[in-house]
Amino acid sequence: MNRDQPKAPSQVRAGLLASSLLLGMPLLASTSPGTLFFSCRPDNDLFRVISARKEIQCVRFDLPREAVHAAPAGAGVLVLADGYPATTTTVEPAVFDEAAAKQLRLFIEYPAALPDLVAGTARRTSLENVVATSGVFGPNLQEMQLLAVHDCHFVELTSDRPLLVAAKVAGFDRAVYGLADTKAYPILFAHPTRDVLVSTTKLSQFITARYAPKDAMQAVWAYVLGWLQPGSATRVLDWTPTVRPTFGRDEALPVAAARQALIRGIDWHTKARMLLSEAGAQEYKRLFAEKEDQSRQPGRSGP
């Protein structure tokens, strides 16, 4: 990959070559200003969307220490949750220290541990929704607006100023009564003592897991990219959701559209197995009873 940057002195290049070979990392001749350094699988949704954009340079590594070691001073590094939800993301203390020494901006998902913070166990949402608790995201994700982060697992951490939280709230697309009387778990927040932006869940699987609304998720990533590279132009990512309307907002509908919508609505009940057999009905009752038991546990509010 050709990038515009002055060549290092020969002794520095030799050191970089030796380090790269020892660490098993790709050797980078140079990197353009604004390059993002990823630690993730090649099929990660965020990496695929960004790497498809020619105006955003990015480099991928398999391990967090490789990405941090390769990144130049002041660069943005993303450590994404490859093991989610079964395994949290482990970053060694020395890697955090190297990132701090190089003044890197580090975004990490689903962390097993963080400097100066106590990470709890990973848990799965039950009746909680993800709620925006700040106006930093702009008009497409306003304060108290809900995000559909399906089957959300998150690491319990504390933050005085979270940007997103998971909480049991009333409302379809907004938390209409706010968060005053409910427990809120941070989902996205800035680390209090480091240049680290923490996502306690895996936000980067927004296509695979069908997170919605799309424009709200675009607002989240525009904020994250802006945080990673302060002073850069706002970058709004685009992708094709796997679940989307058949017709656009301004498209003319064909004559048979109403009939086709009715057929699809009926078919949905069959394909979703809403018409239960006797065994299915018993399983439904069991799952519903489990939900009721969870809502009655001490410290939990009802649905």
Quickly list its features:
disordered N terminus, 15% strand, alpha/beta, 303 residues, two-stranded antiparallel ribbon, single chain, Rossmann fold, 7 helices, globular, nine-stranded mixed sheet
Description:
The protein has seven helices and eleven strands. The strands form two sheets. It has a nine-stranded mixed sheet with strand order 2-1-3-4-11-10-9-6-7. It has a two-stranded antiparallel sheet with strand order 5-8. With 303 residues, the protein is α/β, with parallel strands linked by helices. A hairpin with a 5-residue loop joins strand 10 and strand 11. It has two domains: 197 residues, 3-Layer(aba) Sandwich (Rossmann fold), CATH 3.40.50; 58 residues, no CATH class. The relative contact order is 0.11.
Named CATH architecture of the largest domain: 3-Layer(aba) Sandwich
Give the radius of gyration. Answer: 22 Å
Structural class: alpha/beta
Q: What is the percent of helical residues?
A: 25-40%
Strand content: 5-15%
- Largest sheet, spatial ordering of strands: 2-1-3-4-11-10-9-6-7
What do the pLDDT scores average to?
Answer: 88
Question: How many distinct folded domains?
Answer: 2
Query: How would the global form be characterised?
Result: globular
Tally of strands: 11
According to CATH, what is the class of the largest domain?
A: Alpha Beta
Head-to-tail CA distance between termini: 53 Å
H-E string: HEHEHEHEEEEEEEEHHH
Unreliable sequence segments: 1-25
Main sheet properties: 9 strands, mixed
Oligomeric state of this protein: single chain
